[in-house]
Backbone:
């Protein structure tokens, strides 16, 4: 395999794998904090037991997240040493702060997970606060590095070398704010819906019991609360991309030809050879409205950029639509659930709705992964926008295909092990092992 | 010389020391799980397993701290090292991943009353392979076999394997296997404590032999490192390490466990400091100096400004963590209550 392709594949596989665990590591602490907070405030011990139930799968998932994150930090050096020699001094500050945040998260998570017999209930609740804050902070700072790759700032290029460095300006690069906020909200949505899916599944398999209903409601409450916020910050992100990363926007929207009053292209398959999008629905002028808040504004198409400096819309547009489509699936199910809940004043036992929740549950994660595909494929061919291409950043080491094979094996084995543990009939996450029972009304 | 790049190099050195003291003991716990023997083999395994539980994730963040420090403060050094040492780092990483996953799987399995022997073996093998490979990778930096021509690394697939680095791997493993049982002596009592005491003293001997052996091997295989080691500062640290190691043995013999624990940590600190001092002023011996590898000043300033702020949060949190889980390794028991015989 071509070295560059092997390196890109390995980085992509590693991140796609890590993102799942990192996302749960951001979202679950928030839900632990809410559950422990409710338990402490209302004295309803059910919520404490609910949170402690999550600890077991959480410990497993966080562990995988930590070790797969270690792989990523090494891969920056294995795969992209020239990129890191160029930008390490600039994105390093964000990673340093992220490192401390991750440290804090690991410490208080250990205290929370292992400390039940050694800490008071109040101390356990207090531990969930630094976990939640540190998890969100580490997400925000890691995303700063990605934002810098999209909108590099804080340096001047002199003889091909970054000079006149301003690390704080590199940290607070223009793309940081919207990427960090949108990404973190998306992690809350993804976790909320994923956890809701687990309870929907167990509701479908057995009698509905109060413990599961509370868990389902809490998970969907978190997911549904952040869902509109994710949508609004997504719009913020898109209008930023429209101004600062025009080729990415054109690829996202499969917008080939520069024009005023550009239509929004939904679905379809973009064909760069003909400049047409096949089988797509077009809404007149909507792209101009979304991009520049003006139905007659000009939106640059892919034809406005030299072909070798613009991304391939076939890798960007479908994932963009998948991301937006996932939102609408979750929004529909969320509205249905809360409508019923408002009418019945109880978690509806209607099986069609519970089944719909189960079907919608992976779409938070799907939205997050495809959003990441959009931002990465949409930046191609650059690793540092307009300064360094991906091909210029790759390692000179010739054996990357072997490394790829080795790590893919690691990921496959870890996934098999994880699924074997989590999916056994008697003790799926969030359900009770047979020896203990909380099947009682509060 | 107190320059910003030297301060950053000191941070990197301290990261390595902390990784050895905490992550190393963690690996050592795995090594002694594999080597558990005698009538109390099960108790030894259980004690180590429980002791690692709450702290393993934190222990391994020190590795990430080192990687981040390297690419933030020494981007060029990072770029060279991760190209030249790709193979041992990949092996170590696979070890870290299998070990972490196996530990988490096993903990999860135990909580639901299931023990998977395959997972336990994976944990043990990874605990042995990883520190050995890491030890080789770290000593390879001092071997003189990483060669830069211009900015390009001269790549040799097995350039990191030499007598010097192989003994370095043994020293790395011995450091881990040395710390774990000594740390366990203060957390156990009775016959189990004696088991760990004997294992600590035996490994101390092995560590002493391996580090002593490294000197003649280095004379033949890594002459530049030997020459540097015989300068005054490195020699001072190495001598102090010997004194500290002997004192630890004495304390273990007299069963002064808390003092022995601190002294053992001091021995490892001094051994690694001797190594780093011999490397100075280079990041990669003879090829890349700390100054040449360093990031521009504004980046170093920003990095060094963040460290004390981070430490302000980190140090009390770490103290809280280690205090909460001190004493009996069984975290299911309340603090400082030892398991009763009749329980």
Residues:
């Amino acid at each position: 395999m071509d070295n560059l392709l092997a390196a890109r594949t390995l980085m992509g596989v590693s991140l796609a794998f890590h993102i799942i665990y990192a996302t749960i590591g951001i979202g679950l602490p928030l839900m632990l904090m809410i559950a422990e907070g409710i338990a402490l405030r209302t004295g309803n011990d059910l919520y404490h037991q609910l949170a402690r139930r999550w600890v077991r799968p959480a410990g497993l998932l966080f562990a995988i997240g930590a070790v797969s994150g270690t792989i990523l930090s090494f891969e920056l050096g294995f795969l992209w040493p020239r990129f890191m020699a160029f930008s390490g001094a600039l994105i390093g500050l964000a990673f340093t702060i992220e490192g401390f945040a991750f440290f804090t998260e690991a410490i208080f998570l250990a205290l929370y997970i292992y400390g039940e017999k050694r800490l008071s209930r109040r101390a356990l609740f207090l531990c969930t606060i630094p976990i939640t804050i540190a998890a969100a902070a580490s997400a925000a700072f890691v995303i700063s590095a990605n934002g810098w790759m999209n909108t590099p700032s804080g340096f001047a290029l002199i003889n091909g070398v970054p000079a006149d460095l301003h690390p704080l300006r590199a940290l607070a690069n223009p793309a940081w704010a919207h990427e960090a906020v949108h990404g973190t909200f998306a992690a809350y949505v993804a976790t909320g819906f994923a956890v809701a899916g687990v309870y929907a599944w167990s509701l479908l398999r057995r009698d509905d019991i109060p413990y599961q209903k509370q868990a389902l409601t809490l998970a969907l409450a978190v997911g549904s609360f952040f869902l509109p916020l994710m949508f609004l910050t997504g719009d913020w992100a898109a209008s930023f991309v429209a101004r600062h990363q025009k080729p990415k926007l054109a690829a996202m929207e499969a917008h080939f030809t520069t024009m005023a009053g550009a239509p929004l292209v939904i679905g379809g398959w973009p064909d760069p050879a003909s400049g047409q999008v096949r089988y797509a629905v077009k809404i007149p002028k909507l792209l101009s409205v979304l991009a520049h808040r003006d139905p007659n504004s000009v939106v640059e198409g892919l034809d406005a950029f030299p072909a070798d400096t613009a991304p391939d819309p076939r890798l960007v547009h479908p994932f963009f639509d998948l991301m937006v489509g996932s939102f609408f699936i979750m929004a529909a199910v969320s509205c249905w659930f809360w409508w019923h809940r408002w009418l019945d004043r109880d978690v509806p036992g209607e099986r069609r709705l519970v089944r719909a929740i189960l079907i919608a549950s992976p779409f938070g994660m799907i939205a997050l992964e495809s959003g990441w595909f959009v931002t990465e494929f949409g930046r191609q061919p650059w690793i540092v926008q307009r300064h360094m291409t991906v091909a210029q950043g790759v390692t000179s080491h010739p054996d990357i295909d072997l490394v790829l094979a080795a790590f893919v094996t690691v990921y496959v084995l870890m996934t098999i092990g994880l699924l074997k543990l989590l999916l056994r009939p008697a003790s799926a996450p969030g359900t009770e092992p047979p020896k203990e029972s909380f099947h009682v009304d509060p | 010389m107190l320059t910003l790049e030297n301060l950053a190099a000191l941070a990197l050195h301290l990261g390595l020391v902390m990784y050895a003291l905490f992550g190393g003991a963690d690996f050592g716990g795995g090594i002694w799980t594999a080597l558990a023997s005698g009538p109390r083999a099960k108790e030894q395994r259980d004690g180590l397993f429980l002791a690692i539980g709450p702290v393993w994730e934190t222990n391994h963040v020190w590795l990430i701290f080192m990687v981040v420090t390297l690419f933030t403060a020494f981007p060029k050094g990072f770029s060279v090292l991760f190209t030249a040492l790709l193979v041992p780092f990949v092996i170590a990483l696979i070890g870290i991943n299998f070990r972490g996953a196996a530990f988490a799987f096993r903990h999860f399995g135990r909580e639901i009353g299931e023990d998977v022997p395959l997972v336990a073996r994976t944990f043990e093998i990874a605990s042995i392979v990883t520190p050995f490979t890491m030890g080789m990778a770290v000593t390879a930096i001092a071997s003189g076999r990483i060669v830069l021509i211009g900015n390009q690394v001269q790549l040799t697939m097995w350039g990191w394997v030499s007598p010097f680095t192989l003994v370095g791997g043994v020293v790395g493993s011995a450091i881990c296997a040395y710390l774990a049982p000594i740390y366990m002596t203060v957390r156990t009592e009775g016959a189990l404590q004696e088991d760990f005491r004997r294992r600590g003293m035996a490994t101390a001997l092995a560590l002493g032999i391996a580090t002593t052996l490294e000197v003649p091997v280095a004379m033949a295989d890594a002459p530049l490192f030997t020459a540097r080691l015989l300068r005054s500062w490195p020699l001072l640290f190495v001598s102090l390490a010997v004194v500290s190691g002997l004192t630890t043995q004495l304390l273990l013999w007299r069963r002064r466990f808390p003092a022995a624990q601190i002294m053992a940590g001091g021995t490892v600190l001094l051994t690694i400091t001797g190594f780093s001092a011999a490397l100075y002023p280079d990041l990669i011996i003879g090829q890349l100096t700390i100054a040449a590898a360093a990031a521009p000043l504004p980046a170093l300033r920003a990095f060094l400004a963040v460290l004390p702020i981070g430490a302000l949060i980190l140090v009390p949190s770490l103290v809280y963590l280690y205090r909460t889980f001190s004493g009996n390794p069984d975290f299911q028991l309340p603090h400082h209550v030892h398991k009763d015989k009749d329980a």
The longest strand of chain A covers residues 156-158. Residues 1-174+397-427 of chain A form one domain. The beta strands of chain A are 156-158, 161-163, 259-260, 264-266, 269-271, 276-278, 281-283, 298-299, 382-384, 388-389. Confidence is low (pLDDT under 50) at residues 426-442 of chain A.
